[in-house]
Amino acid sequence: MAKSHEKNSPNILLEMKQISKGFSGVQALDAVNFTIATGEVHALMGENGAGKSTLIKVLNGVYQRDAGQILFDGEAIDFKSPWEAQMGKISTVFQEVNLEPYLSVAENVFIGREPKTKWGTYDWKRAYRESEEILAQMGINVDVRRPINEYSVAIQQMVAIARAVSTEAKLVIMDEPTSSLDESEVQILFNVIRKLKETGVSIVFISHRMDEIYTICDRVTVLRDGTFVGQWDLKNLSRMELISHMIGRALEESNDRNNKKVSATKEMTEDKPYTVKVRKLKRGRIVNGISFEVAKGEILGLAGLLGSGRTETVRALFSADSYEEGEIEFEGQVVKFNSPYDAIRAGIGYCSENRKTEGIIPNMSVRENITIANLPALSNMGIVSTQKQKEIVDKYIERLGVKTPTPDQQIGKLSGGNQQKVLLARWLCINPKLLILDEPTRGIDVGAKAEIEKLIRQLADSGISIIMISSELEELVRNSDRLVVLRDGYKIAELDGETATEEQIMHVIAEHSRDTEKVAMGGS
Prior knowledge:
With 524 residues, this protein is α/β, with parallel strands linked by helices. 36% of the residues lie in helices and 24% in strands. It is built from 19 helices and 22 strands. The strands form five sheets. A six-stranded mixed β-sheet has the order 6-7-8-3-9-10. Strands 16-19-20-13-21-22 form a six-stranded mixed β-sheet, with helices on both faces. Strand 17 and strand 18 (383-384) form a beta hairpin. Helix 15 (386-400) crosses helix 16. It starts with 11 loop residues before the first strand and ends with a helix.
């Protein structure tokens, strides 16, 4: 690691100057600047492909920069690996939790920095004690002796953050740290961030959630197409201005979406056929007698906090999981799918919430990912017609605006928004009657999110019924014709999409929680 004793401003912890990085002729970063002060929470924002990940990887040593200079704590640095960066007091918490699944919580907290006794053996007592203390400070009470894979993704995320904190880092980089957390866990994380800030630790916070950015961050740096757009104090920057800086144009405000929503909602009051009716569906303790229906061309939003049973309900509907009780009526007939294959043959498509592990096949091409669910229709005696495959792939790449150099490009190399479009194309190939979209815009930038939402409305207008799940209530309210609200596996309300608000949904959830507490305490 190269260093010099060139001193920086005493209040500036990190300064990245004119950073450039290219890959095979593609300029990922072009003279980018980034500065963060000591004890500051600084947002790094930009659309997918803007260069955020590349900049962070240059900082922590995954990539070596082509040009520019990095000053950290008053010295010029050139880390050659993430391990070297960690030893240099920079820790990164990635969106995909990077933990060893079969090691204990304590072992994961201290991995690579294992505490030793005076005899050189692993100091288990110290590891257990100190990991418990660190997690307790974060409001997490778990058995640190148990393997990390026995805990939820949310707990794993908090353990990853605890590991970063335990290194006594001066700078902690958090890449979409709240993507797997519910509201209470987000507040715990924000409290941890505030405590770190009070002790002088700086935080680089990467998130697509505007509410979080404005709640916890002091300043924001925006990148676009690998270039530096600017840096602002958030208190002086409106959300509309921030989005405009990210997408490079003034945000178009139109009443067209609202007009369509009102129109669609009014049509729902008419005698329209229902594509699916779910009656008293029960699966274990997480799906407790849930009932709802979706009309042809309707977008039904499933709202609820983490653990409310939204995903479990649609997985049971799709037969990805079995259910013990209840009835599903599809296109007027009671059905009992034995597998997702049966559901797909009936005309149901399902985009799962975890795009990377349950959606795309990263090492396969865009062409293969689009047509994989429709291969039987493209085959004759087991041989796929390349001409039919090309026609359908070209059709949906153009229709959905998938940005890819070629249909043979590996899908794993596309941006999140384009990966999501490919998954939509996969299900459109089967001419679905019902499309289930679980977190369709998670981890997608603002511009791509607007495109996906527009596509969803177009699909509904074409007659496809849609069930949409989103952790962002604003997104559900904006796009749904009706909303079903779940809590703890129960359906607690059904709201008109035309008049529903975020506040109304949260009020319903909060009131139900209080009613539950009354029953538990013997009240009426």
